[in-house]
Amino acid sequence: MAGLEPLRGVLLDVDGTLVDSNDAHARSWVEALATFGYDVAYDEVRRRIGEGGDKLIPQVTGLQSETDRAKALSARRWEIFRDDFLPALRPTPGARALVDRLRDDGLRLVVATSAKDDEMRAILDQAGLADVLPQRTSADDADRSKPDPDIVHAALQRESLRPDQTVMLGDTPYDVQAGLHAGVDVIALRSGGWSDAELRGAVAVFDDPAALLSAWQRSPLAQRTVR
Length: 227
Fold this sequence. Notes:
- This protein has helices spanning 22-35, 42-46, 53-61, 68-85, 95-104, 117-126, 150-158, 173-181, 209-214, 220-224; strands at 9-12, 108-112, 136-137, 166-170, 185-189, 204-206.
- The chain is an alpha/beta fold.
- The two termini are 16 Å apart.
């Protein structure tokens, strides 16, 4: 880490990183797709969780994301997720403790997610994290979802952070790619369901927020934090 700028901010993905929600998202998409006549396997959807609906829908249906049918499909997916899956969501192990530690170290924290704003707010509320993460960027702040870097750029701008002063915490290959495209180092977590090989490009990989906290002194966060 010698020669790197001191760390000033951390960008935080939500689904799979701070909240154990990736499987729930995949199931809600499969159900919504079925109601619109698309028989798409769970595994086909699950490997795309982490991208936004603007990418997932065209990939699995051939519909353009701005068509009325695609918008109706996306809206139905949210209804299913909100009513059937959201109430059971829980934070990933150590999520709150990690956020508290980052705040105690004086780092500027910004949520950077491909989810829509209303969905992100509901998920953070359900996981008991909304009060500690007031700065947020979502799909509503970007033209393109991950792995495009639009959301990362928006999050950096929100807190006037430079890429070399910032680390991103995510759980999918799409987080890693978005961070790298924006010039931001990414610490990846396996809690989203991806392997180390699939998370290639991350500067470090840990099981979940609790594991990152346990290995804090050996992590890129400790090595670049100025107290």
